[in-house]
Amino acid sequence: MAIRVHIQVSGPEDLPWVTELLRSVGDAEITVSGPEQHAEPQASALQEDTLALLQQKASPAARPLLEQFISDETTTRQAVQELGHGKAVLVRLYVPGPRNLGAYVVIDPKNSNLTFRLPKECAAGRNHAFARDVKDGDPYAVRMLLTGGEALAEAHKLASEAYERVLRR
Fold first, then answer.
1. Do residues 105 and 115 make contact, with C-beta atoms less than 8 angstroms apart?
2. Are 116 and 122 in contact (CB under 8 A)?
3. Helix 15-25 vs helix 63-77: angle between axes, to the nearest 10 degrees?
4. Looking at the predicted structure, is the pLDDT value of residue 76 above 60?
5. Cβ of 103: how many Cβ atoms within 10 Å?
6. Cα dist from 148 to 44, 68, 162, whole Å
7. Which one is the CATH code of 48-168: 1.10.287, 3.90.1150, 3.40.50, 3.40.720?
8. pTM higher than 0.70 for the full model?
């Protein structure tokens, strides 16, 4: 039995995570062809310890999305990646420069949760994010589960809002 799937991506930068996602579904041989075939592979923006943590803790289906999110944030906002230690090992993304505040987003690879340094009202009207049941004034009041491309786009919008709020402080 042969299965043929057509996936249209926005550019060659999307091919690695799409291919990884397809491979995570089962034993598959995947070839990609088209006019963009000669594009050079991009170096990963993930630090080695971040990549190792994601490979160890994240599910095979969630890993490409988490890698894409962290890579995009590191590339577009020059976010600083830092691993947290303790019971739950987390990835924290910080605004570059002096750290007057905590991370603008905290990533839990085991559960594919992203927790943003945003007030609860920032979750209103979102499809994937929700307000956490935390005390008023808790800086990390918005959370979402990273489940797919639509959630990834929403995660970047929330990250942008959180990043800008940290910059204004």
1. yes
2. yes
3. 160
4. yes
5. 25
6. 20, 11, 21
7. 3.90.1150
8. yes
